């Protein structure tokens, strides 16, 4: 008997169990504790949809679960989606795949979780591929005959009339489905993240600049290149090693190659003394040359990849072997983390590599499930390893799924379209994921500097020179601008770190797409003002702005509460920006804007348009060459913008361990007031005795732009 009975599991969260799903799922695998105390403090909301409008029925061997849609509703999420942000009207085939070149829904990190701009969300927790028809399917009973038009004669003909429901194909064995209430879209995502344990708080050094060196580099080459960063006065915290550090790779051994790295411990140590952490590239497939091969063989799947074993890490024995090897050979000598590559798989003709869906694993999982879960397995195993040492890690992963918000990992891709890379920052924010628009190579200095500007305002500021050997100074004509933005990122570190602390505690992502901060009505209102302006423009000058298509504003985003980033790509010198209501300032231009409308801004190569809200207080530090070690006294500057009073919070802890979970952390309240004579006063309150390294606090009031000392 199929029951469509939803039970409330937390404030604003309801659950439906279809059949009796067996085996692991993203949520059960991650084993996280929901942040119930925080959820309880969120608004009490009624179920967002009428239960009798949610239908569950058998459909062949699967089940179909359907939810009502209103005609203009927009749907976001479904994981990292590089090709579009609003998924309304699309069928999403949510399979892990490293080549999301077509807009099918397949991606490095598919998450069967969609969020409506009407303030609710639906997540299917399963290890199987889910197909979501997000308003792309029309049942006979819903088809309104009067909407069917004749293509021969009607220019307004559309392929599909507007569908009035979402249909989700639920796997044959069943699944657990969650419905999240709002009232706002931000609340929906926060509830999802909180149920999955909250957001991740990276170590502070993880938010510095990252550089990955070319393959086959030796220890000396790495040390020399690291030195170059200091000589060029370009901050850098993490050096990533690419293939070549393993004794064999493709498939890998996880053991150091002796001729290039004769003494890995001293190498890691030497870099540490110079303020660099080491991150190691690896992939899942175990080489016959690996010391673990024989032990892992019986614990692996029926199929190999690149000739290497694909171990079944859902088995504790297999996970224990992997962990022991990594702990002894990497973590104990000071390695800071991993880049978990190629756990996603590809079927491209020239480069097909992945076990098939029919592969079988000793635990009983099949290839489909293992592929959907592999990225999560590696994230969890490695994160646990560092946690057991009371050290935080931060790294990269190329596959993920649901329930990943606590994981200290950032997604990346071999694709390289800059606009898609910006969209990735927006789309990942709906699903508890982080994404880096990594820089690799560039067509010219303009492309280079635009990409560098974007990446400096992203969850991980990284140059991945594995194949091209580029350096931040590769285009000397723009080196000054590149240095400026890497330094600006360092300066903003206390602000960024606080945004991540909010993610950890309240589930609100540090990088947020625009629907997090503007309702559909506010967006429509702002767009309507643009239309009026354009009308004027049309009458007076040219018709360039005449025809507009609907914009999704998937090329701009918020960083924390105060900053709005609107990157430009090669070939652009101006763009439209959707500005939320209020007064805003160009962070570096000082220009004043009234929001609640769409503005047009120009920015030469030396600038990325970033806006700061009036009344904001940005906590900033100096542009040091790297993040100082825990406990190092650090001067802090509190920069207040505009003429309005304002408040902000600042988070601080040791930046490296999990001691904050035992209360060793501080939240400071910052407040700026203005008296009748226009004098500003800043107040800093909070439990100052708790492990804060911030000293020498200085205030700057009523700023309209950020002044940096460095020459460009
Ligand atoms: C790719 C990865 C690149 C680089 C390369 C090394 O799979 O996406 O960033 O690590 O492997 O072979």
UniProtKB/TrEMBL annotation:
Residues 548-618 form the Glycosyl hydrolase family 31 C-terminal domain. Pfam families: DUF5110, Gal_mutarotas_2, Glyco_hydro_31_2nd, Glyco_hydro_31_3rd. The keyword Protein biosynthesis does not apply. Keywords: Glycosidase, Hydrolase. It comes from the Bacteria. Belongs to the glycosyl hydrolase 31 family. This is DUF5110 domain-containing protein. It comes from Paenibacillus silvestris.
């Amino acid at each position: 008997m199929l029951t469509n009975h939803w039970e409330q599991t937390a404030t604003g969260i309801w659950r439906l169990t279809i059949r009796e799903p067996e085996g692991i799922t993203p949520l059960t695998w991650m084993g996280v504790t929901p942040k119930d105390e925080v959820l309880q403090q969120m608004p009490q909301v009624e179920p967002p949809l009428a239960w009798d409008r949610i239908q569950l029925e058998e459909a062949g061997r699967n089940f179909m679960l359907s939810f009502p849609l209103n005609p203009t509703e927009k749907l976001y999420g479904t994981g990292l989606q590089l090709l579009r942000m609003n998924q309304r009207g699309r069928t999403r085939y949510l399979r892990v795949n490293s080549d999301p070149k077509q807009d099918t829904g397949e991606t490095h990190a598919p998450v069967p979780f969609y969020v409506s701009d009407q303030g609710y969300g639906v997540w299917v927790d399963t290890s199987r591929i889910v197909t979501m028809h997000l308003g792309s399917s029309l049942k006979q009973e819903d088809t309104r005959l009067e909407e069917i038009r004749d293509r021969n004669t009607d220019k307004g003909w559309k392929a599909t009339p507007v569908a009035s429901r979402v249909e989700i194909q639920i796997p044959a064995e069943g699944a657990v489905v969650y419905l999240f209430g709002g009232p706002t879209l931000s609340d929906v995502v926060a509830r999802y993240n909180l149920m999955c344990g909250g957001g991740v708080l990276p170590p502070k050094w993880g938010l510095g600049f990252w550089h990955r060196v070319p393959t086959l580099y030796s220890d000396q080459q790495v040390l020399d290149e690291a030195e170059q960063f200091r000589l060029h006065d370009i901050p850098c915290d993490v050096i990533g090693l690419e293939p070549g550090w393993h004794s064999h790779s493709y498939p890998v051994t996880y053991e150091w190659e002796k001729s290039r790295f004769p003494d890995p411990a001293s190498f890691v140590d030497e870099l540490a003394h110079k303020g660099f952490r080491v991150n190691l590239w690896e992939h899942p497939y175990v080489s016959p040359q690996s010391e673990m091969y024989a032990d892992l063989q019986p614990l692996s799947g029926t199929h190999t990849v690149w000739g290497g074993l694909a171990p079944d890490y859902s088995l504790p024995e297999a996970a224990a072997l992997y962990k022991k090897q990594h702990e002894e050979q990497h973590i104990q000598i000071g390695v800071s983390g991993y880049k978990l590559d190629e756990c996603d798989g590809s079927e491209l003709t020239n480069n097909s590599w992945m076990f098939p869906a029919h592969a079988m694993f000793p635990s009983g999982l099949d290839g489909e499930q293992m592929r959907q879960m592999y990225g999560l397995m590696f994230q969890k195993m490695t994160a646990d390893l560092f946690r057991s040492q009371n050290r935080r890690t931060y790294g990269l992963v190329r596959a993920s799924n649901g329930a990943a918000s606590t994981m200290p990992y950032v997604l990346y891709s071999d694709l390289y379209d800059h606009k898609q890379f910006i969209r990735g920052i927006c789309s990942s924010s709906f699903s508890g994921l982080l994404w880096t628009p990594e820089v690799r190579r560039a067509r010219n200095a303009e492309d280079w500097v635009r990409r560098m500007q974007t990446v400096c305002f992203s969850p991980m500021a990284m140059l991945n020179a594995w194949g091209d050997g580029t350096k931040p100074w590769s285009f000397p004509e723009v080196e000054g601008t590149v240095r400026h933005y890497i330094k600006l990122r360092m300066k903003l570190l206390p602000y960024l770190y606080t945004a991540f602390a909010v993610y950890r505690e309240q589930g609100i992502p540090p990088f947020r797409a625009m629907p997090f901060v503007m309702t559909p009505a506010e967006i429509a209102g702002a767009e309507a003002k643009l239309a009026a302006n354009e009308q004027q423009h049309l009458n007076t000058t040219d018709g360039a702005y005449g025809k507009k298509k609907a914009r999704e504003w998937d090329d701009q985003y918020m960083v924390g509460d105060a900053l709005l980033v609107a990157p430009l790509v090669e070939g652009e010198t101006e763009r439209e920006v959707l500005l939320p209501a209020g007064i805003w300032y160009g962070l570096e231009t000082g220009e004043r804007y009234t929001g609640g409308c769409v503005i047009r801004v120009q920015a030469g190569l030396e600038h990325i348009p970033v806006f700061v809200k009036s009344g904001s207080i940005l906590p900033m530090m100096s542009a040091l060459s790297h993040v100082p070690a825990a406990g190092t006294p650090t001067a802090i500057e509190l920069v207040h913008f505009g003429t309005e009073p304002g408040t902000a919070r600042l988070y601080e802890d040791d930046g490296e361990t999990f001691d904050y979970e035992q209360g060793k952390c501080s939240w400071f309240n910052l407040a700026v007031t203005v008296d009748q004579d226009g004098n500003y006063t800043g107040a800093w309150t909070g439990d100052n005795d708790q492990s804060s390294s911030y000293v020498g606090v200085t205030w700057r009031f009523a700023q309209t732009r950020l002044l940096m000392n460095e020459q460009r």
